[in-house]
Amino acid sequence: MGWTIPAALRTTAVRLSALYLLLFTACAVILVVYMTATSARLLNDQTQEAITNEASDLGRAYSRGGLPLLVRMVASRSRQPGANLYLIADGQGRILSGNVESLEPGVLDAEGWTSHPFSYRRFGEDTTQAEGAREGTLTEVDKNDGHKALALVLRLPNQMILLVGRDLGEPERFRSTIRQALVFSLGTMALGGLLIWFFVGRRALRRIDSVSAASKRIMGGDLSGRLPVSGAGDEFDRLSENLNVMLNRIGELNDGLKEVSDNIAHDLKTPLTRIRNRAEAALSGKPRTAEYRQALESTIAESDQLIRTFNAILMISRLEAGYSAEQLEDVDLAEVAGDVAELYEPVAEEAGVAFSSRTEAGCIIKGNRELIAQALSNIVDNSIKYSAGSETPSVEVSLVRGGEDCVVRVRDNGPGIPDEADRLRVTERFVRLEKSRSQPGSGLGLSLAKAVMKFHGGRLDVLPANPGLLVAMTFHVQRDSE
Amino acid sequence: MKILVIEDDKEAADYLKKALGEAGHNAHVAGDGDTGFTMADGGDYDVLIVDRMLPHRNGLAVIADLRAKGNTTPVLILSALGEVDDRVTGLRAGGDDYLTKPYAFTELLARIEVLSRRSSAKEVETVYRVGDLELDRLSHSARRAGKEIVLQPREFRLLEYLMRHSGQVVTRTMLLENVWDYHFDPQTNVIDVHVSRLRGKIEKGFDKPLLHTVRGSGYMLKAG
After folding, report:
1. Cβ <8 Å between B180 and A311
2. Residues of A near B (CB-CB distance < 8 A)?
3. A14-173: in CATH 3.30.950
4. Which of A153, A185, A331, A467 is the most exposed place for a label (fewest CB within 10 A)?
5. CA of A277, closest CA in chain B: separation in Å?
6. Residues of chain A contacting residue B192, judged by C-beta atoms under 8 Å apart
7. pLDDT tens, B89-147?
8. ipTM over 0.85
9. Cβ A381–B183 below 8 Å, yes or no?
């Protein structure tokens, strides 16, 4: 069993883990994006608040001491470590005070909050700048260079411009941390997914391969083979166990079928052989003699018996397959039982068997009277045959209604079937118990009766009668048929 | 008797033609449903023997078409399908009798002879007579040589059937079908026992046998 990548990719386990991976990733991305956005906004708000406070401080200083106080205050604040951004410039961009050296062009044009983060550079950061620039004018910095900041721009009287700002390095750092975390977690998830993919997929595949291998062996004809059960009690085991139960059932059915075909081989081949031998013997003798005629007659008789057996087999299988229900009609069981009793009474008398029948009216069922009569006559025929050997042989046919059931009982006082297993077996096809092998018959009479009862939704019971045998046909009376 | 056999199995048809010829009948053969219909429609046959499964037009359709045209020739259906419902559909299509393959030729012969004379006047007669045996259908009584014979209801029906078809062979299955109204095949010699009981009643104490056993076929009631 080669394990190839395409095969692995086609497994359900792999598809499921891929789906899970995708889902987890989507969730993680959404979470991170949300967190980033929320915290960025929070930081932004904080920044703006700080700047507003700073600006109002400076504003108070300006109104108290005018421009000189403001310039002094800005200068002292600019020198503090980790200071915010300060700039006082005139309309021409000459710097009066502050710690900002370069700005992105256009930042000072509008009053109020800068519309977006802008680039700037502090004093001393740009080594290429000449010393003169320090006292000189504000230089420009490209949009993509320098640090990013957010600032409040205020216009003072006398064309002075005050800028109070704050570096955005902190939120930017925060954002990049989160971005790294996202990349890291996504990487971990992808790796984990791949690992699950690999192990689960391969494990599942291996189990399935072993099941397929076992079923291939079984399909190949080894019906005794069973699917492997690992003992883990997982879903594969449950599946295998169920399939094994099914295989057992198939095995039983197969054995049954084999038994039937063996029996057919025996029960049909034996008479066929007899017919053949007889015809052969007749051919070698003289034609138009009494023996010749006798041989032909018994050939016909044997063939008739064979045809009868075939018909019975066919009828049983048709009944078992579900007979066409359109032939169901109201059948008066008392009438059928009476007919069969009347039909067999002289037969019993001739065999020296005391025969009695007792029927109760009111048993009308939906069924096929021909089939019921045939089933009952098979049973009665058997009873007469088997009771004939006893001392005071008797057969009794009765029809009794009890609640929803109508039971036709045929009871004899013959030897019966002492063994319970035999009693159960006797309704199977071609089963003829050892003692009855010598009796004529196909071994299908009771099987046919059983099939007929099953067809009518009833059942056939073979019970001990002490002495003798009791065969009971139980029909269920449907209320709507009354 | 002029008989048409509609059967597509040539060997079976030839066998039937030969055997019917030997039994003194004049049999024709049609190999498919259409030919069979044309021949049956045109010719004046006494009995038709129709196989159920035929090429071109199936046996039941042939019968239904003939009946639709007003043709009332008695029909015996031959079929490999022997279940009860098959028989019912066969008879419902207009067949008069039904025989399952494989069959005994004697059975077929007995049935077509009964079929061909089915329409005879015996149906309406109230008193049947065979030799010195007399059966009155109205008073439900039987007499032989003026002496009353006591019969059970079923025995009466058995004798009635045998007398209606006196001089003809009636088989055991025909008796089971017509006297008991069952179509299954009883396992043992059930019918024989009933017939021998009846024989005891109508022959005991009389010289001449009336109820004869026809070897390999069945029974025949006839005088002398």
Report:
1. no
2. 297, 300, 303-304, 307-308, 311, 314-315, 318, 323-324, 326-327, 339, 342-344, 346-347, 350, 368, 370-371, 373-374, 377-378, 381, 385, 441, 445
3. no
4. A467
5. 21
6. none
7. 888 888 999 888 888 888 899 999 888 876 555 667 888 888 889 999 889 999 998 88
8. no
9. no
Q: DSSP label at B142?
A: E
Give the chain B residue nearest A329 (alpha carbons). Answer: B85
Residues of chain A with CATH 3.30.450: 14-173
A329 strand-pairing partners: A367
Asked whether A154 and A89 are in contact (CB, 8 A), the reply is no
The CATH number of A235-319 is which of 3.40.50.2000, 1.10.287.130, 1.10.10.10, 3.90.180.10? 1.10.287.130
Sequence-ordered list of residues with C-beta below 8 angstroms from that of B169, at least 6 positions apart, any chain? B106, B109, B110, B113, B214, B217, B218, B219, B220
Per-residue pLDDT of A18-55, as tens digits, reads 787 788 778 878 887 888 788 878 888 888 888 888 88
Q: CB–CB of A374 and B184 under 8 A?
A: yes
pTM listed for this prediction? 0.62
Does the distance separating the beta carbons of A445 and B187 come in below 8 Å? yes
Name the CATH topology of A324-481: Heat Shock Protein 90 (3.30.565)
Residue of A nearest to B80 (CA): A311
